[in-house]
Each structure stands twice: as C-alpha cells, then as structure tokens.
C-alpha cells in the first residue's frame, strides 16, 4: 500500500521547510552582522581611546565606549537567543514590553483617560447635535 499526502499535508511540510530556511538564514545574517558590529566596536573603541588621549575627549569617549560596549553586548545576546530558539526572542520581547507598560503605567493611564474624555466629548456633541436636529424637524 502506497502512502499519499493530501495537499494540506504538502502545504504544511512546505511551510515548515520554508520557515526553517528563513530562520536559519536570519540567524546566519544576524551572526554575520554581530561579527561586523564587534569589529566596528573594536575600531571605534580604538579611535575613541586615541582621541581621549589627545584631550578633553576623555569624558565623551568613555561614554561612547560604554555605549558601544552595550550595543556589542546586546548584539551578542540577540545572537545567542536566536541560536537557541526564535521563540525565546519573542518571549523576551513580550517580557520587555510588559515591563515597559508596568514601568510607565501612570503615563499610559493618563493618556488613555484623556483619550476616553475626548471620545465622550465627541459623542456628547454628536448626541446634542442629533437631539437639536430632531427637535428642529419636529417643530
């Protein structure tokens, strides 16, 4: 007896294959990008150190070195996460968004309250207009 696949199975297999290829290629591109960023960070760090030795660039240079080191660390972390599983990256992104919402809840709540007040104003004005129009028609 010969096993046959229906079109839905073929589409599922093709979709899974394409997804695997896309994730693999994305991880390769991210790895290449990370290597390049590391090289750029090393170059920029060297240039900043030379500039810092010249004079007052020391303070600015130190801040830029820290910033580039943080960027380097972030790229390495993203690379590690992508190498592990792209769903972990999604979970980290969701957690980061949840943290930002939690941290800024007062601002978000104030914004939502302001939006709600505007919506109420618009609906109140629309209802007042309709009531006035109906009264005019009936009179």
From TrEMBL:
* Name of this protein: Uncharacterized protein
What are the transmembrane regions?
Answer: 12-33, 40-62, 74-102
- Which organism's genome codes for this protein? marine sediment metagenome
Q: Which UniProt keywords apply?
A: Membrane, Transmembrane, Transmembrane helix
Record has Transmembrane as a keyword: yes
